[in-house]
Specification:
alpha/beta; D-Amino Acid Oxidase, Chain A, domain 2; disordered N terminus; disordered C terminus
Length: about 400
């Protein structure tokens, strides 16, 4: 479809064609709004800035099933302490999928288009103005500027996007730095991911996600406030010094991804004629760094509320606050608990992690983890652990961690 270099007008304009943007647009269109998605890059899903590991619930929220974009089904995880000891959790049912994020994102975009949303690829937002009660988005398309009018603009443009900043909503509370390579790897279990915690990964963790029996995605994220080294330097050190990496990982890589993980949403995610969703709104699990599930869940609400506001003619911040209230009711507690977990774990040293892994390996605790562990809703497991371990002589570090996680410091 060719677009003239003149003003266009839509009820909803979604900035960003990732999962949050596609889901926002899909639900806006489903609710009767004339909707446009603009995507800066020339292809949806590119460049990839994700491990490509999505939970089973993510597929349900997105309304899609397994397809050719699924490489592996994941049933559990091997978690390694700094001293090399480890525990294995899960292993009975499929909990996540290793996917091709390019194909995954494009499938979501096709779903939005099937509901009537229009898509402009290779279109970069460069400005946002208020004109006669409408939002006017200035964009560059095919090398030339044009203007797009909107009743509501949905900012799903990621952690480095501009819509939140232009609208005075500010930025997320914290940003982690990450890097991942795809390389030859002697995979022990293709249905298990590997997780590494400790001083080698300050502020977060490292991972190995299997793609096949001899290929894996190896990466890590670090908190820039806790280290003077880049994520890439930490990854190179991890590959060179971790015994498991030295024994199993090949040299070189076939792909590299560099990106950021936003943690902690803004105090408000709406302003007059604007709401933000997904990574742009910090709707990311602080415990795992995964953003597709929560982003998609919140994006559904974003599209619905934006459509109703635009069609009613009231796109004020007060009208759009329904979105802010509804998404916080849906996932706000999980994000808050996740941030407490993240902050506590960031303060633990190597020996603390060794003790924590040993504690989690106790049969009763491991049984609870396997039964109630939920990557999307960690508060459920925390509640069970607190209830079942009451009265026991818990490890000092675990006692402090639990109190902090539950907001009782």
């Amino acid at each position: 479809m060719k677009y003239p270099l003149a003003d266009l007008s839509y009820d909803i304009v979604v900035v960003g064609g990732g999962p949050a943007g596609a889901m926002s647009a899909r639900y806006a269109a489903m609710n009767g709004a004339r909707t446009l998605i603009i995507e800066e890059h020339r292809a949806a899903g590119s460049p990839v800035q994700c491990t490509g590991l999505v939970s089973s619930k993510t597929l349900d929220v997105c309304g899609i099933r397994s397809g050719p974009w699924v490489y592996q089904e994941v049933t559990g995880a091997h978690i390694f302490a700094p001293d090399g000891s480890n525990i294995s959790i899960g292993g009975e049912k499929v909990r996540a999928y290793v996917v091709d994020r390019k194909m995954f994102d494009r499938n979501l975009l096709r779903q939005a288009a099937a509901e009537g949303a229009e898509v402009m690829i290779g279109t970069k937002a460069v400005g946002l103005q208020d004109v006669d009660g409408m939002k006017v988005l200035e964009v560059v398309y095919s090398g030339r500027k044009m203007r797009i009018k909107a009743g509501v603009v949905i900012g799903a443009d990621g952690v480095q996007g501009s819509i939140a900043r232009w609208s005075g909503l500010g930025q997320v509370q914290k940003v982690l730095s990450g890097v991942q390579i795809e390389t030859v790897y002697d995979v022990a279990d293709t249905d298990h991911v590997e997780v590494f915690v400790g001083r080698a990964v300050p502020g977060f963790f490292a991972w190995v996600v299997p793609v096949s029996d001899n290929t894996a995605r190896i990466g890590l994220c670090v908190d820039p406030a806790r280290t003077q080294l880049s994520a890439y330097e930490h990854l190179m050190q991890f590959l060179a010094t971790n015994p498991r990496m030295k024994a199993r990982a090949g040299s070189g890589c076939s792909d590299m991804v560099v990106g950021c993980i936003p943690l902690g949403p803004q105090s408000c995610t709406v302003s007059n004629g604007v709401l933000i969703s997904g990574d742009a709104a910090g709707q990311v699990k602080p415990t795992s760094g995964g953003g597709v599930y929560m982003g998609a869940l919140c994006a559904k609400i974003a599209g619905e509320v934006a459509a109703h506001a635009a069609l009613s003619g009231d796109t004020s911040a007060e009208a759009l606050m329904e979105y802010d209230k509804r998404w916080r009711h849906a996932v706000g507690r999980e994000l808050a608990v996740g941030m407490r977990i993240h902050k506590v774990f960031g303060r633990l040293d190597g020996e603390d992690f060794n003790e924590l892994i040993r504690f989690c390996g106790e049969p009763e605790v491991l049984e609870l983890i396997n039964q109630y562990g939920d990557i999307d809703h960690p508060s459920v497991l925390l509640g069970k652990l607190v209830a079942r371990t009451k009265g026991k002589k818990l490890l000092g570090v675990f006692r402090v961690a639990l109190k902090a996680m539950m907001g009782k410091e």
